[in-house]
Design goal:
The protein has about 270 residues and is mostly helical. It folds into 3 domains: about 110 residues, no CATH class; about 60 residues, no CATH class; about 60 residues, no CATH class. Helix content is about 50%, strand content about 0%. About 25% of the residues are buried. InterPro entries: Lysozyme-like_dom_sf. This is Muramidase (Phage lysozyme).
Length: about 270
Amino acid sequence: MDKTVPAGAAILLDFIRKTEVGRTDRASYDVIYGQNQHKLKKQITAMTIGELVDEQASFTKRFKSSASGGYQFMRKTLQDLSRELRLNGRQVFEPDLQDRLGYHLLKRRGYEEFMAGKMTVTEFAKRLAMEWASFPVIAATKGAHGQLKRGQSYYDGDALNKALVRPEAIEAVLRKAKAAGNELPVLAPEKRDAENLPSEPEKPKPVWKSKRAWLWSYIGTMSPAALMGAFDWRVQMVIVVSIIGISIYSILTMKQVKDKITELVEAL
């Protein structure tokens, strides 16, 4: 379900797909009337709206209806939605777009008024039945082709459409949708593999554990003594040589210097 569809509307749209095409999975968005999608050269979720509308021109003759997608959009409905929402026909008819268009149809039929308590369940159910022929009216009313009883399709009598669910199911899903409200769905946090988790920053070593600190301490202590002639000249020579060696070691083991040396060696 598209992330911009609120919880209550998502419940209704899932129910509509289940009722209209018999399923709610990814494949539900590719269904055309009469389950004839396998007769097409290209899945409708891979078509643009413009391509689908062009294809639908032959659907009524071939399949008895142009109803397409998870919400069984008629050709005229898609054309109206394209004009109303200023779609340019190049949008791909993928599942999220179908969800957004389905949500717009719900709003057309009074979804927001129903959720706000400004429209009765009976009236909203009738309006849904006007949009989706598989839905029954839940009270006696006048339909497209005459007087209707509770449980009949709004288009009963056209020799094509009939209600596919009981009115009690409509009442139950409307109660559920209203209880869910208009909150946007809370998305589960994305799971990440252990190897992709950011590593903790390396903690600096305590000074007393640092080799470099001890080496520089030695240099700092012995250098003045050597310079001041505090030891025999041979001892001083040993101290000076060790200081030079320690200095070179300390410099070469610095990370920046090591990296640079590695680069130079690899370049040779």
